[in-house]
Each structure stands twice: as C-alpha cells, then as structure tokens.
Amino acid sequence: DVKVTQSSRYLVKRTGEKVFLECVQDMDHENMFWYRQDPGLGLRLIYFSYDVKMKEKGDIPEGYSVSREKKERFSLILESASTNQTSMYLCASSLWELAGGPGEQYFGPGTRLTVT
Amino acid sequence: SQELEQSPQSLIVQEGKNLTINCTSSKTLYGLYWYKQKYGEGLIFLMMLQKGGEEKSHEKITAKLDEKKQQSSLHITASQPSHAGIYLCGADMEYGNKLVFGAGTILRVKS
User: Fold this and answer.
1) Quick one: residue A40, left, alpha or beta (phi over 0 = left, psi -120 to 50 = alpha)?
2) Is the confidence at residue B1, as pLDDT, over 60?
3) Contact list, B9 vs chain A (CB under 8 Å)
4) Using CA atoms, how far apart are residues B47 and B61, in angstroms rounded to an integer?
C-alpha cells in the first residue's frame, strides 16, 4: 500500500512563527503536492514538485515556500505564520505519467494548523 | 475551483435512499477522479474515468463521465451511514501533473 505520512495531525502556532510541515511518501513517486483545504473552497494547490529540488507554484503560493531535498520528502514552510493561514493542509504524491496527465494522487491524513 | 462546480454543496439523506452528486466543468475533462474524505482526514481514491460515456462501479457507488466529457456524476445506491463524508471530484484539464478540485459535497446519512 502507498503510504503518505505527515509530521503532525494537529498544530497550534503563534502569529509570526516559522512553521514547517513535513510530508513523506514511501512509493518512490516523482510528484508531490501541497494543498490547503477550507470550507466551501475545496482543495487549493499551494506548490508541487515533480523531482528533487524542483518546484512549481500552484494557485496560492503567497506566504509559503517548499523544499524537496530528497525524493520521498516534501516540506511546506510558512515563513511568518498569519491567522489567515489557519487551515487543513494536505500532502499528496503521484507517479509521473509517461503519457502525461496527473495520474492518481495518494493523500496523507492532513495537518490541521491553527495560527493564533 | 470555479473551473469545476460540484452540486449539491451538502446533502442529507435517509439511510437506504439513493443519491447523486454532480461535477461539472466548462472545459473538456481529460480525466476525472472521485475521492471520499472522512471529516478531518485525508482523501481516499474511489475511481477514475477517462473516456466519454465511461461508467465504473465499486460496491454501491457508480460514477459516470458523460459523452462530451464535461460532466461526471457519482451515484450511491441504498445509502448507508458508512457512506457519510465529503466527496470531491478532481479533474485533469491538461495542466500537466496538476488536478483541479471541486469544492466538495458533504453527505450525511440519517439512520
């Protein structure tokens, strides 16, 4: 079974703190993704990576950065947390498809981040 | 995403009743993925559709992609409390490796 794990299920941080969210997958997937999920807005893509040290901005990258130093690990960084970053953060991974297209994404359990 | 509209936003059904959730796009869908999410947890893959007119079933859940490949429906027959959760559609709109997601449909099943 594909396993995607996230470092924390629940996290509470103060405004202005630097926050690291870690995601690890064990299936040698090339692609990894960070989403945030908010009621009524669904999943919005923050950043994704299709290879080690490669990253691309998603739809809402402002206030976030990412790091992918190893294939299995993709980190999301909130440089200076703000209250509007309170959300559910979901990590996903997928195989790079030779024929193109995103392929099935496997999701982690999510991290519910609260910024006070 | 506004590119992908899901309806209804939420749904409460009596156990045993059938229900349908729709996912509509203004653009051609090159692949449509259905996921289920239990509250506060990650997404679980249900099924994927690629061809116009395609239909797939898993237990009591059936998903279809219309001929024009711009709408998909998810149908649950004889709903059970275990079906409760959030259903999300994710679409391949030829943006490379990205999926575009709908806002989700919250399903509650009353016993």
Assistant:
1) left
2) no
3) 40
4) 10
